[in-house]
Amino acid sequence: MSKKILFLSPYPFDRAPSQRLKYEQYYPYFEKAGYELTTSSFISESFWKIVYKKGYFFSKVIFTFSGYFRRFFDLLRIRRYDIVYVHLWLTPIGPPVMEWLVARLAKRIIYDIDDLIYLNDQRNQNKIMTWIKGRRKPIELMKTADHVICCTPKLEEFVKQYNECVTDISSTINTDTYQPIAGKSKKPLVIGWSGSHSTSRYLHLLDEVFRQLSSRIDFTLKVIGDPTFTLDGVKVNAEAWERTSEVADLQGIDIGLYPLPLDEEWVYGKSGLKALQYMALGIPTIATAVGANYRIIEEGVNGFLVSTTEEWLDIILKLANDQELYDRIGVAARQTVIQQYSLKSTYTVYLSILEEN
Fold this sequence. Notes:
Elements: E1 3-9, H1 17-20, H2 27-32, E2 35-41, H3 45-48, H4 57-77, E3 83-87, H5 97-105, E4 109-112, H6 119-123, H7 127-133, H8 137-144, E5 147-150, H9 153-159, E6 166-168, E7 189-194, H10 207-214, E8 219-224, E9 236-239, H11 246-251, E10 255-258, H12 273-280, E11 285-288, H13 293-296, E12 304-306, H14 309-321, H15 323-340, H16 343-354
Helix pairs in contact: 5-8, 10-14
């Protein structure tokens, strides 16, 4: 008789990168191992279409109530499942009441956290906002889970304050889907970044780099995920992120950029997913020397770690002008992903956690 898993997620299936490029892509492996899977998301498909858009206040209120209704329905059926797999949070607002109830009803809980979503709680800047945003919820889930899955050493260190049963699994890539394009010409050179409208401000950390670069070589800055992105004096090709064309859009990049701030603690919760996406496609990657990027990128071997404007500029120019270096870094980058950060290299770790007694 197959075991049943109930996945309780914030977002609809196959929509959010934190789910889609983490545990959701392992569903075929779980099913092949004999598990029967059910997913329940707090945010519905209809809510997803407007949740990050301005306005729609009353619709968002109604959809939020609908999400709570689904969670109460989940409580009624939770005993039917052998495992309850929770990602990030169960409900977004208020104290951890739902978390407490699930912990007492579920036969076994696996909690998956891939960001420092508890930070406001730790800083304790505003107790009212902490309550409203439910910042205690992740802590409650860490305490009560039978096993916690995180994605960076910093997260693992934090979780161990509350639960010793924790496994650090980085974001991973389906290397069968992410395939490099052979014989890319780099003419004209395309320097690229992928993210979202909310994170594109970190690309602006490199404004001076792009301006200096534009006076030295011909290039296009390709921005995926924020179609409104512009930069005076720089040729920009900004486009919306599309799930169906994600890989093809990334394949159009010659050099991948992953800039992050050096002075914000939340960076240590990032698993380096964007860098891994570039690297899986054989795209030489330059990333800020911070957090999990240190374990993904070996300096000068499979990519580059930088901190200053001068370093960003120097490495981009080297990759643009040295074909042997460009090819060598790209090949090594893909091999790193295949060997350490691919579905095939990691699925057994997930299965071992699911199969724990």
